[in-house]
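As a warm-up, study this chain.
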Amino acid sequence: MSLAYRSATLSLTPGGVRERPNRHAWKACVGKLTVGSNPTPSANRGRMVHVMNDLNVTGESGAAVTAFSEMLAGLRRTDTNSDTNSNGDEYVITLPTDWLQGRTSYGGLTAAISLEAAQRSFPDLPPLRSAQFAFIGPASGELHLRPQVLRQGKSTVFASVDLYGDSGLAVRSLFCCGTDRRSSPDFTRWQMPDVSEPRNCPAFFSWPNRPNFMEHFDGHLAGGQFPLSGHTPPEMLVWVRHRDQSAPDDFVRLIAAADALPPTAFAAFDEAVPISTMTWAIDILEPDLRNDTGWWLIHNVAETIRDGYSAQTTLIWSPDGRPVLSARQNVAIFGPQP
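Now compare it with the structure written out below.
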């Protein structure tokens, strides 16, 4: 999951998170990002759903693009079948160039394709609960995916998928899937920040020379900073959705969107440097992904930038205020040199 943004001249400084605002009125994205504002759940729930359906979902550049659902339909099963029940079918896909960054896939897409391969091989998997991804090498050329069930218990299944590219093993994925069980208490600490609707926030994917795959996402900055804005602390609060709204909401689509933003460390830089995500771990906080708008509010925070690496956290909310996913990411940074 390597990126190098070559040029960006951005002077916009949006905000959008407001502490205890008038929750019945929309305001423009102004002010400073304030993490931890705690509006009541009733104020958040359902208030975004009816106002987000009229934003443009076609490609900004006008160039021909391959819809996410069409791209995913290119994942096909090969004739290589295993003799054991634990190994699934092998799958192969060649990604269209508009889904690449340079010559390789971005990490979120390889993670999403790996989950799709696991679910096709083992259609009776329980709901996804957590996943870990190691981005070992470039995911370029024809990609081959090999799913396997590692262990199946009464309520939990562990499955893995190895994804190979032209240079060998590119991504190793581990999925933990589990059925619901009754538990008490019912608690979450992650309240959705009170932010403006996307139409009142500046477009996020607006800088020149951005990777091809970003053409497939619509984004609006609700708080924090743009990439290459030279600001600390580095964080981004962004409304993101797929431009292709033809496929149902599921975790394959969500995982692809969850990694659509550049690593948050880029907000602290004022010049482009090569970067590459090494590992990514996600936890599913809400198995119900009903979302009438397609929008997800993604909050990325860089906790450290030091010694050529950055540790980053992610939280994602649905438009009605439910936290659906949390994640951690380790990013290698190759410059600038002191």
